[in-house]
């Protein structure tokens, strides 16, 4: 019962960074970024990638469709409400997939049925049967979720789960949609279902826990111990409100505490750091320094007592190695004398597999950086390459920037941009150099987008560190996040703003039937 391929302790990792994660306000990603993340999730060994909610927008449809085309190993999943139109759209988007899954859901809690759906429980019950059996016309891999499952009447939950399995669902996912459960309770819910539903052995039971009380990972682990064999999670715990259960925390907890929670996953944990950085950089959602597993301080030992212990024996203060999550001590130190070959090897060491032109351009920027900065760290190269890759096809390109600032004012920015191949230069002033720079951009590319976020973070230590700037713009309910890096914070700011504008232009070109979220 609830085993995968007859391996009783195998856990499937279902990643929903691209769907539930992207639903987080301000975390929207463009197609290229989603494909990059999907490729890395596949490389990591994620079993199921939920790539989007195809009915929600043309962008979501395209993303699911493209991910389904390029990813070969993982199962690709598309979300659908219980309506036939949703299910057909998901099935269409998933057509190119080698292995596809339709994930259909409907709310089952009294609150949701009464106020959100305005449906009677018996109507919901019938919708479960109709939607699952309809989805089975398109694929034999159908997942069903009772939204707000943890606040659903237990008898009704058991009836709907049994009916969903009878209609053909092969995975039953139990969401703690509002992050209300506590571990003992959530574990009991999973074991209760497994005990009570007569045909439960025909499906894999899954958890989907939100983090409103900071318990998403603990609840997911309680679910596993109670018999769940799939966990839904996101990189960095990205997701609506307080987010979803963090993939890296679940996987590393299972790996590190085999003595107490002896379950295995297919995840190559050495990809974790790279995935975390990629998701953070694409969304502009910084990872808190003390975040478990992927925070900048997760493996840093600063106090004298700890350092002394570490030097005597690493296990005194380290329960897992930095290498196990892909934080390795670099073998190649880069500087201004490093050549093209060493740079290419370094890129491979950092997990990049770029084409010749991209390597060429990244190498040119690396040389520029090495001239300005004594030590070039791995983090510098990651920031530089991520910056380069995203700007390849931009219609608006940063040219140059000269800023006059300081206590005497007025602060002015003279900026040049290349727009569709034509060069423009203006001088603008503002309340400070950043404002002056952004005003100059607005003068060249007039627009009505609102600035929602302006965030600067130093890529490494030292006053010569590169600044990585994130800029979030909002226009008519659509948000985009741009980023830019440079040793000059104002140049990085201009690059980030320009990058966000390019994404906005790209978004405007795609029509959306209206925002829908799960
Ligand atoms: O949180 C939730 O209930 C969901 C469902 C769509 C599975 O995301
Ligand atoms: Zn969710």
Helices and strands in order, then pairings?
Blueprint: E1 12-15, H1 17-21, H2 31-44, E2 48-52, H3 58-70, E3 75-80, H4 84-93, E4 100-107, H5 110-117, H6 121-135, E5 142-147, H7 154-167, E6 171-176, H8 183-196, E7 204-209, H9 216-225, E8 230-233, H10 247-256, H11 272-283, H12 304-312, H13 340-349, H14 356-372, H15 378-391, E9 396-404, E10 411-419, E11 422-430, H16 433-444, E12 450-458, E13 467-475, E14 478-486, H17 489-508
Parallel strand pairs: 1-2, 1-8, 2-3, 3-4, 4-5, 5-6, 6-7, 7-8
Antiparallel strand pairs: 9-10, 10-11, 12-13, 13-14
Helix pairs in contact: 2-3, 2-11, 3-4, 6-7, 8-9, 9-10, 14-15, 16-17
Bound molecules: 3-methyl-2-oxobutanoic acid (KIV) and zinc ion.
The spatial strand order of the largest sheet comes to 1-2-3-4-5-6-7-8
- Low-pLDDT sequence parts: 511-515
Would you report the number of β strands?
A: 14
- The CATH class label of the largest domain is Alpha Beta
Largest sheet: 8 strands, parallel, barrel
Shape: globular
Terminal CA distance reads 30 Å
Average pLDDT across residues?
91
User: What is the count of DSSP helices, taking H or I runs of 4+ residues?
Assistant: 17
Could you tell me the radius of gyration in angstroms?
24 Å
Tell me the CATH superfamily of the largest domain.
Answer: Aldolase class I
Provide the number of structural domains: 4
Structural class, please? alpha/beta
Molecules bound to protein: 3-methyl-2-oxobutanoic acid, zinc ion
